[in-house]
Amino acid sequence: MVERGRGQTQTPAAGEAATAVTAVGKAKPRQGMMRQYDLVERVRSYNPDTDEDMLNRAYVYAMKAHGSQTRASGDPYFSHPLEVAAILTDLKLDDATIAAALLHDTIEDTEATRAEIDQIFGSEIGALVEGLTKLMRLELVSREAKQAENLRKLLLAVADDVRVLLIKLADRLHNMRTLDFMRQESRRRIAEETLDIYAPLAGRMGMQEMREELEELAFRTLDPDAHGVVTQRLTTLADRNINLISEIEAQLSSNLRNNGLSARVFGRRKKPFSIWTKMERKSIGFEQLSDIFGFRVVVGDVADCYRALGIVHTTWPVVPGRFKDYISTPKQNDYRSIHTTVIGPGKQRVELQIRTAAMDQIAERGIAAHVFYKEGVGSPTEFLKRESNAFAWLSHTIGVLSQSANPEEFLEHTKLELFHDQVFCFTPKGKLIALPRHANVIDFAYAVHTDVGSSAVGCKINGKFAPLSSELQNGDEVEVLTSNAQSAPPSAWEALAITGKARAAIRRATRSAVRDQYVGLGRRIVERLFGRAKIDYADDKLRGALARLARSSIEDVMAAVGHGEIKASDVARAMYPDYREERVTRRGGRKDGPRNPSAIPIHGINSGLPVKFAPNGGAVPGDRIVGIVSAGEGITIYPIHSPELKDFEEEPERWLDVRWDVDETNSQRFPARIRIENVNEPGALAQIATVIAEHDGNIDNVSMQRRSPDFTETTIDLGVYDLKHLSAIIAQLRVKSVVARVERVNG
């Protein structure tokens, strides 16, 4: 999070970030600032049994704690937590939430401590305030990392008590309302964060009124010109159509009443930000928008919703494809309503939302519409876990996000989870799966279960085979085909996945697979050294030496050896302090020595080891090969006569004995490079490519350089099965009249 809770506290030097003390003693409330009794009366208006004494104590404690701190506006700082509390009284929240709102900046910005808050107000309120307190001592990380770590702390606190989120959103809303007093750079930074995180988060919690206000305030700050233009056009259009709006309201009300249905009907203009984003998303002008005004029909119960829908559809023509029933299939944020669009009076498109009064409350206030102060509901969070889809989504998302490996990844996944609209798909057994719009089968598979995603090899959409990358549409039935042979997903899936859950799972599986490769490589290196030194290796003996290697498990040791962070000889010395490493030179006769039966077998890049091939020429089965270990890169395989091996002659500890272990029936190709001097005439390259293709070679890259007016030097990287296959291609190229010379690079 960016602003320090105090948001707009003024400093003598910087204008923000620290607290300015202008006088000793309490800050006096400015004229018009809410008094103690005003706040208590606001709570009492919806909760006659409010704990007046506790609210008064919180009011006085916070005022004294903040003392003479001021905001950038010059107002006493205490006006901020007071306004946050007032926002929450509009949402009719419980006493503990109101008190925590008054106290929410005390631990972070004053001398108050969590222990003191617990002692005076109880651990429930103390935990709420602690959940809203940002992490300190993050000076050594980037601003994005600070933002992510503080967001992670907030969301984890929200998982324990949802009221933390409600206070934070109210805190952000008041800071946005008073943003004009901040410096321009700070205004933009806070507005961007609001639009990226807090407005979508409010929307995900079903708090549409708060989301819309946060979006509008951020839009006005980030693009004041666009905001002004859209607002002006909307106002002009509303003035021009005021009679039409009244006519539609009157006709709707009359039609429903004449059919025996009591309903409240009212029209509302869409907000500038939603209009602007729709114009950008669809690349259309203002004049092309047909749904600037929406109408809401509020009826008594669910049955009346469908009766009203029938009346509307039999009165006016329906616009095809514009009907959605969120009553039978609610959104994940608990939103329930029927949406439809008809051609109304004056041949105008009329968007309608049909819902009950209870649905209307939840549509505007979301999780805050649940009554926390009533007796018998228990813990608000436990109540929401039972009753709220929105909180279930939040809890699940927090669980997924908390597994992110670093702060920036956490922030990326959070934004992915917050931003997308939804599509609803079904498993073959009829289970409903809600996904972000533009999600594909990979996202669907991981939404069903992580194991289903990781083992997915194919799919059927509505009974037809389709690629795993297929984008899903509302109502699709998706069957994911899995295979036990695939235990980890391809790393390339991460770029295809839309949801944070799928991306996080793929990333974790990729990391795990890579780690397993390094563990396997490290174990082979260690066992090979022990075999050469004729000393016994046993996991139990290594387990007793872990402390000397500063590792907590055998797998950590082996992974470190595979990474090149620890030498195999260090492992031997940790287990056998008397061990002395035998130094072996790699100069001279090494190349033609007998093959070592303990050499590590190489199957190719798809083996269980982190293997790659020499960058300038590769290596193919049939070559005598050697492996070079590089820290963090695994093994690089070189032909043993490669001139590049001279670079490693002074580092014998990096050399590994390796051997090919390739099944002759395997169709895997290996990298090789050839250099051709060919006649510079039309069709020469085509003839060369034809020879390679006819002999089942695969060209990966071609580069050409003119050496003389008559000849061109062509370098080709190609994939072949083995040395025999490569030699056959070279032999066929040599008989071509356009080829003067051909040779293998490093061959």
Unreliable spans: 1-31, 136-141, 585-594
- Name the quaternary structure: single chain
Report the total helices: 29
Structural class: alpha+beta
Beginning-to-end CA distance, first to last residue:
58 Å
Q: Any idea what the radius of gyration is?
A: 34 Å
Widest sheet: strand order? 1-2-5-4-3
Would you tell me the overall average pLDDT? Answer: 80
Largest sheet: 5 strands, mixed
Strand segment count: 19
Q: Which percent band covers the strand fraction? A: 5-15%
Q: What global shape is seen?
A: globular
Instruction: Tell me roughly what share of residues is in helical segments.
Output: 40-55%
Quick summary:
The protein is an alpha+beta fold and 747 residues long.
Protein architecture, described:
The chain is an alpha+beta fold. Helices cover 45% and strands 15% of the residues. The protein has a five-stranded mixed beta sheet with strand order 1-2-5-4-3. The chain has a five-stranded mixed beta sheet with strand order 11-15-13-14-12, covered by helices on one side. A four-stranded antiparallel beta sheet has the order 17-18-16-19, with helices on one face. Helix 3 crosses helix 9 (163-177) and helix 19 (407-419) runs antiparallel to helix 23 (500-533). It is globular, with a radius of gyration of 34 Å.
